[in-house]
Specification:
alpha/beta; about 70% helix; single chain; 4-stranded mixed beta sheet; 17 helices
Length: about 425
Amino acid sequence: MKNKFKYLVKYSLKKKIDTKWFKIVNVLLLVLLVFLVNMDYLINLFGGDFEEKENIYVVDNVGSFDTFSSYFNALAKEMDIDGFEIILDQDILNDESKIDDEVIVVLNPSNTEYLSGEIVSFDAVSRTTYEMIVSSVNAVKSELVLSTSGLTPDEIAALSSPVEITERVLNEEAQNNETKENVGAIVTTVLIVPFFILIVTMVQMLGAEINDEKTSRGMEIIISSVPAKIHFISKVVAAISYVLIQGILLLIYSGIAMLLRNVLASSTTVTSGGMFTEVMTMLSDAGIFSLLAKGSVILIILFIVSFIAYAITAAILASMTTNIEDFQQLQTPLMIIMLVGYYVALMAVMFDGSVFIHVLGYIPLLSVMIAPTLYLIGEMSLLSLALSTLLTVVVTYFLYKYGLRIYKVGILNYSSSKLWRKMFKSLGNKE
């Protein structure tokens, strides 16, 4: 019997993995992850950029090009705007018919106002660029005024230097909201989204496989050779093995993408290269890595047991149907549960301290997407996470115990009528 069980698991797993579709999807996943993680480097490597650089030419008739350039670049950096290049060109206005995409700033001396300026362009200049140019020209004027005031260089430097401002927020909760929202977005993207995709894939594949065996009448041959219990467990084990393999492959693809990013970082000079460093610093400051270290075992158990619970539920529903169309209808409640868990996890940060969301974090099938998010944003303690996991384990046990009774009746059922009535009636049968 043990050898038959192994054969069923291997056969089911082979049907999922040893296919062209599985290989094509994984190649696409690898390419997609590599592209997403290294998007900035790859675009830069092939001679592109996120934004076409905007050239700003300066006709300097007052000798203040360096001042204008330094002020403009400092302002662009402060506003986190990249893509400008300041160029000194005294002759660019000699032939105005050749002006196309250029923006030209003319600095002229003034007897009454110290400085006058003119912006020349073929098309209208964007409002942001215009305001930055005006601010920079005003800064040049201020420096010209100071330089003719008779003040010492140190006094001029003190007066023209930017004001150093520190921020003090009295409402600490408001100060932490932005960080918490960013952390919540990262948690749902890294943990919840892959889990959601894997669960959907697993449910669809279980339904398709069981219905294929029933449609081809191969189920009768299988059940005549092995008990329904062994067949049921083999399907669940094969499904869990599949998602674990796919999950490990995703981790490997992510590692390859990060390794490639490090390689590209040494050969390019993309300004956004520090994005991942900033994200890691933010997560570290928020205590995410410390929370992961403390709750890693419980989180792993919660994810694995939840995979088992979803696999058991999908197998039970598939056993009660005779074709994939009926299964699609019968699995609707399961899909609704998954969508509710996913969207509540996304909203957990927005509704900080919500009792309703905390209660949903303890409900099995929902908790796997909600509880980790609440825990990592500091809204759920490690003890509460353990309790949520324990409840999932208990419910999964009862799903298996009573689901097996439904499976035994449904696996040889070829009628699509009165499915729910048959399902509830089978619950009263003894194993």
